[in-house]
Amino acid sequence: MIFRPLVLASVLTALAAAPSAAQSTGTPAAAPADAAMAIHPAVLAPLAAKSLLLAAARAGDRLVAVGERGHILLSDDNGTSWRQVPVPVDSALTGVSFVDARTGWAVGHDAVILHTTDGGESWTLQHADAALEQPLLDVLFADAQHGAAVGAYGLYLETADGGRSWTPRKIGEEDFHINAIIAPSPQTRLAVGEFGSIAFSPDAGASWTALASPYEGSFFDALALGPDTFLVFGLQGHVFRSADAGQSWTEIATGTTAGLMGGTRLADGRIILVGAQGFLLTSTDDGRSFKTERRADRVALADLIQAADGSVIFLGEAGAMTAQPGS
Predict the structure, then answer these.
(1) Domains of the chain, with CATH numbers?
(2) Smaller CB count within 10 Å for the chain: N or C?
(3) 3-state SS string over 230-250?
(4) 192 pLDDT more than 60
(5) Are the beta carbons of 237 and 254 closer than 8 angstroms?
């Protein structure tokens, strides 16, 4: 079983084996105090911007990046410089989502969920359960009240009150890792994970249906190219495209067997996917084909984000790295 961050195996140690998914019973999720003894604040580190970073989000024009050891870094100059902020946990952080310039959430190992109302300057702990041994791997909020956090062994937590309470539920018959969740439209959701699992919700997460998968290996992430057009990608360089809301899939040749970890669509319409061993895949035809390149330093890449000025920031085992579009 493969967690999305574990493809960066040279920089992230293996997660402990988790117990059976007894959390999916509809009982209330653990409150922060339940796991307080296992939670410690992140250490402010001079080289945090060069440490493993796994995800980023825009908070207005600000960039917010999260990564190992509870590191959260902010950039107010389009990725030119970064500063670390205090965080109440030292768990690896794997996902981050903002609904506006001030309101956001970050998730990670120990089932940690953090919340900010000041653009990432300060964070409060909304949820944690280290004893569960099931990391959260991604988070998605539609607005300031409604959100979902997903993770290992089918872990799915949802909130309708801005994270003041989180309720677990099952969205599939199997307890496969859920590596990523996206919103192709305001009313639809797509979740992908291990063993080629793809789940679709037509009603903002109220109900879920398992889609027929074109691949039995893990998907690490997904991109919405339109309300009914999706890319799913992951293990062994596999990329699949659907133009009919996941009813059928076309495999896209990539020329690589490196794990593909993250991706984004730039303002000019180009799609970039990134992955292990420094691979970058670029599409100029809405994901129908990709040009595959490899960084000279072969640094593992986990994600990327476009800044307000158009700069592209790559995130991975060497921290945050800036490159201008087209470079």
Answers:
(1) 48-152 (2.120.10.80)
(2) C
(3) EEEEEHHHCEEEECCCCCCCE
(4) yes
(5) yes
